[in-house]
C-alpha cells in the first residue's frame, strides 16, 4: 500500500526536509564552509518514476476506465514553494509550502470531468477517479459537441529535468536572508531611499503524469525569482519614485541564478535610479520613437501577441474572463494577417534553456515542438493543446504539416485542471548583431524604456497602455536624461507594424513572470519571452503624472 | 494491481472534505502538541470547490478540488518562520512543526513580531449554507443550460460562463490559548453572451453565500439582452464624460480603494492618504454621499469575524459621509502608533443612495453607461490614478435615454477624483466580478468629468 511517506522516501533524495546543503559561495565569492571540492554543487539525484507513485497512477487510470471513462490522465505531484521576504533591515516572512496530491481528468462520451484529492492512497485516488467520471456523466445533459484529442505518440518511461545546477531548497534560510539584508543595506545608503523591499521565491515541482494511452512521465523543475523594490521619497514627502520590483528577471534555474544576479552590488545602482527619478523631467506628450529593452518589451509581447494567439481565446473559450482575440477567426487570418514587417518572427517554444515555460512534456503528455506563430511578418499558427489542434486540421493539411498539439497544456498544480497556457513566445533577434547602444545611436528623437511597470490591455488585445521603470530621453542619438510619467498607448496591429529595428543575437534576453493569470478558477502560469532591444517608430506617448 | 478495493462512500458524505469545528480543533491541538517553540500559531484551511465552465455554447471544463492545508508559524524570541503542508498524518504534522522550528531558528529576528493572541470572543456570523455545499454536478449543468439553451436556439449568440461553489472552513489556534473557527460557503455565477457576428457582448453575474438565492435565469436574461443591444457599436470621441457606472463597474474601480487604506503607508508618506507631516485622517476627501464600510456581520456580504492572526474584526467605517475616518492598522502598526488594530478592508460596501439606474439615466443629457471595467492597473500611487477599459455593454446616453451602443474606452482616472465628482447614488447590491472572493457591495453611481483617454476596438 502506498502512503505519502513512501512517496516522500522514494520520490528523490533531494526532497527530504532540510536536506544538508552543499558548501556554497557567498554572493561576494567567499566560501561559507567546506573544502575546495565541495565548491562544486552536489550532483542532483537520479530522476525516475518511483514504483509507488506509478502504482497509484495506474490505480487511477484503471478505476477511471472501470467507471466508464473512455480516456483518462492523472498527475500526482509535489509542489514546493519557498519564500523569504525582507524590508529595510528586517526579514518579514519565511514561508515553506509543500503540498502533494492527485488530479484526475477523464473523458466520458466526449465530456470532461476533473477531480483533485490529497488522499494519496489507492482508495483515495480511486474515489477521485470515480467522482471525475460522475461529473463528466452529469455534464452530458448539456453537451453540444464531443471533445476529441489529437493523436500523439505515448511516452512510456520518460523523465525530464529543468536546467538548474543547485537546488535552492538545499540552501539554508539564513544564507538567503543574509543576501537580502545586505542588498537592502546597500540600497539604503542612497540618500533619498527610504524604503526597500526585497524577496526571493523558489518553486520546485516533481510532476508525475500518466494516461490511458500508456505514457508515464516524471519531471522535475525549479524556478527562481529575486525581487527588489527601492522607494525614494523627496525631502518634502510630496514625491515618491520606485525602481523595481522586477529588477532581475525570473528564470527556470537554481541558486546559481541568485548568485549571478549579484543583488548586493547592484542594489545601490537600483536605488540611485529611483532617486534620480525624483527630479526627472515629466514627459511631454507626443509621438516618439521607442527603444524598448527586453525587460520592458517582454510584457508587451506577452499581452499583445502572446494572449492573442492562444487558440482557445481566439475560439471564445475565455470570453467570460480575460476575453477573446482580435486575431480571429483562424480561417480569415492564418497565412494572411500582416502582424508586422518581414523582419518580425515570433516563435512559440517550451525548449529555451532557462525560460520559465520550458518543459519536457506538457500536461497532455505531449512533447512540445518549436513553432513559428509569426513568420516573416505573417500570422502562421496559434498556441494549441491536444483538444484544440484538430480545430486547425484544415490549415495543417493545406500546408503539408501533421495535425499535432504544440504542447501548450498546463495546470499550475495537482489541484488544478490542465488547459491551454502560453509557452515561451519569443521575438527572434535581427540578422545584424545590433546592440542596445546601436539602436539609441540610430535614433534622433526617442525614449528608451527599461523594466516593466504599469500595464493594461483590452479583452481582445487591441488597445494597450504600458509604462516602464526607467525612461530615458534620446536626442540626436544620445541619452540626455531620465524622464518620468511616461506610458505608451498603442493599438497592437499598428504598433507591431511600426517595428523597424531589431537588436541582434548578443542582445537577446528573457523577461518573464510566475504570475500569468488565466482561466476560471484562476491559475498562474510561469512564462518567459525572449527578445532583443527593439525600436518602434512614432508611438503615442502620454503623461501619467498628476497634472494630466 | 488490485481491482477489488472498497472505496469510501465519500460522494454521499456532504459536505465532503470540509473540517467541522471539532475536527479542526482536534487537528490544531495535535499540531500544537508537537511544538517546542516559544510561540506557535496553527492555521488550517479546508475546502471543497466545485465548478463548471462553459464557452462557445458547450461545457468546457468541470471539476472538484478538495484539500486541507495546515500552516504552522513557529517563533523563538523574534525569529519566526512558517511551513505549509497538506499532510494530515501525525507524522506529517510533526514534520511540518519541526521544519518550521528549524527554519525559525535560522531566520534573522523580525523586530515587528509582537506575539500571538490568546483566547478571543468572536461574533456569530452566518456564512454557511448547505445548499451551496451540497450542490451537485447535475445542479450546475442544469443552471448552465438556462443560458446554453436560449443561446443555441437563437443561433445568433454564443455564451461563456462560470459557476463556482465553494465550501470552506478556517481554523486558527495558538499556544497562547486562541482558537477561532469559521466555515463559509460562496456561490458565484458569471456569464458573457456574445453575438456571433462578433460585434456585441454583454455580461452579468450574481453571488451569494446561499446558492438558492442565485437567479440563474435572470443572469442569462441580462447578459443576452446586453449582447443584443450592444451590437454594432459606434465610435464617439474620447474625452471627459458624465458616466453612469453599474454596480460591477463601481466595484471594479471603487473596490481598489479598499487596498489603499493602509495606515502604515499613509504614515510613511507614500500613500494617497499622506500629506506633509501626517495623514489626511479626519479630512473631507470626497462627496458627502460617500460612506465606505467593512462589516463582517452585514447580511448582504457576510464575512469571517476574525483575520488571519485570529484578531476579531468588527465593523469599520473607513469613509463616513466623505470624511476619511479610519485607516487599516495591522496589529504591529496599531501597537506602535497607539491605535486599535482594524483588520483589512477585504469585504467592502459603499452605502447606497436613493437613485435608480433609470432615474440616473433620465437626468443625463449626454453621458456614458458602463457595465463593467477590465484590466485595471495603477499608474500613480500617490493619486490612485488607474488605467483600464470598459467592457461588455457600453452605451451612449442622450437626453435622458439610452441612445445606443458605443465602442469601448480606455480611461485614466482615480476613484478619489470620481468620488468628488459624484452626481447620484443608487442602491448597493452584491457584485459578482470577484469570482467568489471577498464580498463587495456597490451601488450604481453617476459621476461627472470622467476621463476616457482613448478608444478601443475590442468587443
Q: Can you put this structure into words, describing what you see?
A:
The complex is a heterodimer of chains A (548) and B (459). Chain A is built from 12 helices and 23 strands. Chain A is of the alpha+beta class and 548 residues long. Chain A has 2 domains: 4-277, PmbA/TldD fold, CATH 3.30.2290; 286-543, no CATH class. In chain A, strands 1, 2, 3, 4, 5, 6 and 7 form a 7-stranded mixed sheet that branches. In chain A, helix 2 (51-67) packs parallel to helix 3 and helix 4 (173-188) runs parallel beside helix 6 (263-278). The longest helix of chain A has 18 residues, at 122-139. The termini of chain A are far apart. By secondary structure, chain B is of the alpha+beta class. Chain B has 3 domains: 21-222, 2-Layer Sandwich (PmbA/TldD fold), CATH 3.30.2290.10; 233-254 and 352-456, no CATH class; 262-291 and 308-348, no CATH class. In chain B, strands 3-2-1-4-5-6 form a 6-stranded antiparallel sheet. Chain B has a 5-stranded mixed beta barrel with strand order 7-14-15-17-19. Chain B has a two-stranded antiparallel sheet with strand order 8-9. In chain B, a hairpin with a 2-residue loop joins strand 1 and strand 2 (58-76). In chain B, helix 4 (137-154) runs parallel beside helix 5. Chain B is globular. Chain B starts with 20 loop residues before the first helix and ends with a strand. Chains A and B meet through helix 2, strand 2, strand 3, helix 3 and helix 4 of A and strand 1, strand 2, strand 3, helix 2 and helix 4 of B.
Amino acid at each position: 500500500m502506498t502512503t505519502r511517506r513512501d512517496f516522500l522516501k522514494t520520490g528523490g533524495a533531494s526532497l527530504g526536509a532540510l536536506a544538508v546543503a552543499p558548501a556554497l559561495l557567498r554572493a561576494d565569492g567567499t566560501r561559507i564552509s567546506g573544502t575546495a571540492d565541495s565548491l562544486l554543487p552536489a550532483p542532483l539525484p537520479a530522476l525516475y518514476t518511483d514504483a509507488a507513485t506509478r502504482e497509484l497512477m495506474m490505480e487511477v487510470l484503471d478505476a477511471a476506465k472501470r467507471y466508464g471513462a473512455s480516456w483518462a490522465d492523472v498527475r500526482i505531484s509535489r509542489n514546493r514553494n519557498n519564500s523569504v521576504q525582507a524590508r529595510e533591515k528586517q526579514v518579514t516572512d519565511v514561508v515553506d509550502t509543500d503540498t502533494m496530491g492527485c488530479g484526475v481528468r477523464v473523458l466520458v462520451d466526449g465530456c470532461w470531468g476533473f477531480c483533485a484529492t490529497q488522499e494519496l492512497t489507492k482508495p483515495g485516488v480511486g474515489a477521485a477517479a470515480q467522482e471525475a467520471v460522475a461529473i463528466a456523466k452529469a455534464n452530458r445533459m448539456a453537451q453540444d459537441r464531443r471533445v476529441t484529442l489529437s493523436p500523439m505518440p505515448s511516452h512510456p518511461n520518460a523523465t525530464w529535468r529543468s536546467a538548474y545546477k543547485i537546488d535552492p531548497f538545499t540552501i539554508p534560510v539564513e544564507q538567503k536572508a543574509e543576501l537580502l539584508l545586505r542588498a537592502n543595506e546597500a540600497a539604503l545608503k542612497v540618500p533619498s531611499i527610504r524604503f526597500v523591499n526585497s524577496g526571493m521565491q523558489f518553486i520546485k515541482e516533481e510532476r508525475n503524469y500518466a494516461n490511458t494511452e500508456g505514457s508515464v512521465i516524471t519531471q522535475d523543475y525549479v524556478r527562481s525569482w529575486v525581487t527588489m523594490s527601492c522607494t525614494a521619497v523627496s525631502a518634502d514627502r510630496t514625491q515618491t519614485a520606485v525602481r523595481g520590483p522586477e529588477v532581475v528577471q525570473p528564470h527556470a534555474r537554481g541558486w546559481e541564478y541568485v548568485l549571478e544576479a549579484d543583488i548586493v552590488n547592484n542594489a545601490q545602482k537600483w536605488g540611485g535610479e529611483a532617486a534620480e527619478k525624483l527630479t526627472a523631467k515629466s514627459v511631454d506628450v507626443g509621438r516618439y520613437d521607442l527603444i524598448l529593452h527586453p525587460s520592458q518589451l517582454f510584457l508587451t509581447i506577452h499581452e499583445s501577441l502572446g494572449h492573442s494567439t492562444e487558440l482557445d481565446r481566439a475560439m471564445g473559450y475565455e470570453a467570460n474572463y480575460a476575453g477573446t482575440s482580435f486575431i480571429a477567426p483562424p480561417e480569415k487570418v492564418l497565412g494572411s494577417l500582416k502582424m508586422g514587417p518581414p523582419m518580425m518572427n515570433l516563435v512559440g517554444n517550451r525548449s529555451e534553456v532557462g525560460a520559465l515555460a520550458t518543459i519536457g512534456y506538457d500536461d497532455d503528455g505531449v512533447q512540445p515542438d518549436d513553432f513559428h506563430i509569426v513568420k516573416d511578418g505573417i500570422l502562421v499558427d496559434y498556441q494549441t493543446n491536444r483538444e484544440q489542434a484538430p480545430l486547425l486540421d484544415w490549415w495543417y493539411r493545406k500546408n503539408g504539416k501533421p495535425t499535432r498539439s504544440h504542447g501548450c497544456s498546463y495546470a499550475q498544480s495537482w489541484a488544478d485542471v490542465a488547459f491551454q497556457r502560453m509557452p515561451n513566445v519569443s521575438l527572434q533577434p535581427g540578422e545584424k548583431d545590433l546592440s542596445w547602444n546601436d539602436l539609441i545611436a540610430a535614433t534622433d528623437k526617442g525614449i528608451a524604456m527599461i523594466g516593466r511597470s504599469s500595464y493594461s490591455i483590452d479583452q481582445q488585445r487591441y488597445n494597450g497602455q504600458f509604462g516602464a521603470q526607467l525612461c530615458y530621453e534620446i536626442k540626436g542619438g544620445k541619452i540626455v536624461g531620465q524622464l518620468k510619467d511616461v506610458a505608451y498607448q498603442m493599438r497592437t496591429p499598428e504598433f507591431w507594424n511600426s517595428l523597424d529595428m531589431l537588436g541582434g543575437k548578443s542582445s537577446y534576453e528573457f523577461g518573464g513572470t510566475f504570475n500569468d493569470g488565466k482561466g476560471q478558477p484562476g491559475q498562474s502560469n510561469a512564462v518567459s519571452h525572449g527578445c532583443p532591444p527593439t525600436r518602434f517608430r512614432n508611438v503615442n506617448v502620454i503623461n501619467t503624472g498628476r497634472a494630466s | 494491481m488490485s481491482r477489488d478495493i472498497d472505496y469510501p462512500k465519500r460522494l454521499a458524505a456532504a459536505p465532503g472534505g470540509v473540517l467541522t469545528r471539532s475536527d479542526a480543533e482536534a487537528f490544531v491541538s495535535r499540531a500544537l502538541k508537537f511544538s517546542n517553540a516559544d510561540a506557535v500559531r496553527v492555521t488550517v484551511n479546508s475546502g471543497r470547490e466545485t465548478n463548471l465552465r462553459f464557452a462557445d455554447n458547450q461545457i468546457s471544463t468541470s471539476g472538484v478540488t478538495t484539500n486541507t492545508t495546515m500552516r504552522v508559524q513557529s517563533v523563538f524570541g523574534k525569529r519566526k518562520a512558517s511551513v505549509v503542508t497538506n499532510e494530515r498524518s501525525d507524522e506529517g504534522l510533526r514534520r511540518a512543526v519541526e521544519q518550521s522550528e528549524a527554519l525559525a531558528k535560522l531566520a534573522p529576528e523580525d523586530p515587528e513580531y509582537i506575539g500571538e493572541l490568546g483566547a478571543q470572543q468572536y461574533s456569530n456570523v452566518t456564512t454557511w449554507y448547505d445548499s451551496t455545499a451540497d450542490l451537485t454536478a447535475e445542479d450546475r449543468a442544469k443552471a448552465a443550460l438556462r443560458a446554453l439553451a436560449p443561446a443555441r436556439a437563437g443561433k445568433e449568440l454564443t455564451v461563456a460562463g462560470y459557476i463556482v461553489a465553494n465550501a470552506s472552513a478556517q481554523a486558527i489556534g495558538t499556544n497562547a490559548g486562541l482558537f477561532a473557527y469559521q466555515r463559509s460557503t460562496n456561490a458565484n455565477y458569471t456569464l458573457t453572451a456574445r453575438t456571433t457576428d462578433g460585434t456585441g457582448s454583454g455580461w452579468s453575474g450574481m453571488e451569494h453565500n446561499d446558492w438558492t438565492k442565485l437567479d440563474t435565469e435572470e443572469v442569462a436574461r441580462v447578459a443576452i439582452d446586453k449582447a443584443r443591444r450592444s451590437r454594432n457599436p459606434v465610435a464617439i470621441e474620447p474625452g471627459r464624460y458624465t458616466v453612469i457606472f453599474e454596480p460591477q463597474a463601481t466595484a471594479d474601480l471603487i473596490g481598489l480603494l479598499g487596498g489603499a487604506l493602509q495606515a502604515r503607508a499613509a504614515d510613511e508618506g507614500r500613500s494617497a492618504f499622506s500629506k506633509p507631516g501626517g495623514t489626511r485622517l479626519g479630512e473631507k476627501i470626497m462627496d458627502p454621499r460617500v460612506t465606505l464600510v467593512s462589516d463582517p456581520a452585514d447580511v448582504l456580504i457576510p464575512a469571517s469575524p476574525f483575520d488571519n492572526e485570529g484578531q476579531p474584526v468588527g465593523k469599520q467605517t473607513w469613509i463616513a459621509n466623505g470624511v476619511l475616518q479610519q485607516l487599516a492598522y495591522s496589529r504591529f502598526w496599531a501597537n506602535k502608533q497607539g491605535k486599535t488594530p482594524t483588520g483589512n478592508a477585504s469585504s467592502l460596501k459603499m452605502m447606497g443612495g436613493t437613485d435608480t439606474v433609470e432615474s440616473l439615466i433620465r437626468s443625463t443629457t449626454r453621458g456614458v453607461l458602463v457595465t463593467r471595467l477590465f484590466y485595471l492597473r495603477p499608474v500613480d500611487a500617490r493619486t490612485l490614478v488607474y488605467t483600464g477599459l470598459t467592457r461588455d455593454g457600453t452605451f451612449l446616453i442622450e437626453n435622458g435615454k439610452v441612445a445606443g451602443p458605443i465602442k469601448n474606452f480606455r480611461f485614466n482616472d482615480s476613484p478619489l477624483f470620481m468620488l468628488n465628482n459624484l452626481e447620484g447614488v443608487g442602491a448597493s447590491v452584491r457584485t459578482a466580478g470577484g469570482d467568489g472572493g471577498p464580498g463587495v457591495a456597490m451601488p450604481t453611481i453617476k459621476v461627472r468629468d470622467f476621463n476616457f483617454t482613448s478608444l478601443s476596438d475590442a468587443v
